[in-house]
Write a structure and sequence with these properties.
By secondary structure, the chain is mainly α. Helix content is 52%, strand content 0%. α1 (2-18) packs parallel to α3, α3 (36-43) packs across α4 and α4 (56-67) packs across α7. It is globular.
């Protein structure tokens, strides 16, 4: 029961944070769905030139982001509490994956302002790296 209330809370939060600026195609994709993964997918569109939804790094990273509290502070194209994922993707490259994964696990401060990033010590390095790979796929072409 506790798990269910957490999932419902995450879905509500993801919906509340991402709903105000969705276009009609995002809204139709999100309607009829109540899982965190599809809510995250509705707030994380693929780039216009490439459909990333078949990329395994995209799928795995999106699922991990939906499963964790990432959407509380981040959106794909807009700064929320933390930077937009697309801004992060445009700043870093694949060589930064280990450093960014470590920041997800340990937390961080100062790169994007004075609001600290919450540490996620229960994430494995592999999962954090998978999340970073997803974010880097959002780089504007």
């Amino acid at each position: 029961m506790k798990k269910m209330s957490i999932i419902v809370s995450m879905v509500f939060l993801a919906y509340a944070c991402g709903n105000s600026n969705q276009n009609s195609s995002d809204q139709s994709a999100a309607s009829g769905s109540s899982t965190p993964q599809t809510e995250a997918a509705a707030t994380a569109p693929a780039t216009a030139s490439t459909d990333l939804s078949d990329n395994p790094d995209y799928k795995k990273g999106l699922a991990l982001i939906a499963k964790n509290d990432c959407l509380t502070c981040h959106k794909v194209d807009e700064k929320l509490i933390g930077p937009a994922y697309r801004d992060v993707a445009n700043k870093y490259t694949d060589k930064d994956i280990p450093m960014l994964a470590a920041k997800i696990i340990k937390g961080g401060l100062g790169v994007w302002g004075q609001v600290p990033m919450t540490p996620h010590p229960n994430l494995s390095v592999a999962d954090a790296e998978q999340m970073v790979k997803y974010i880097l796929l959002l780089k504007k072409s």
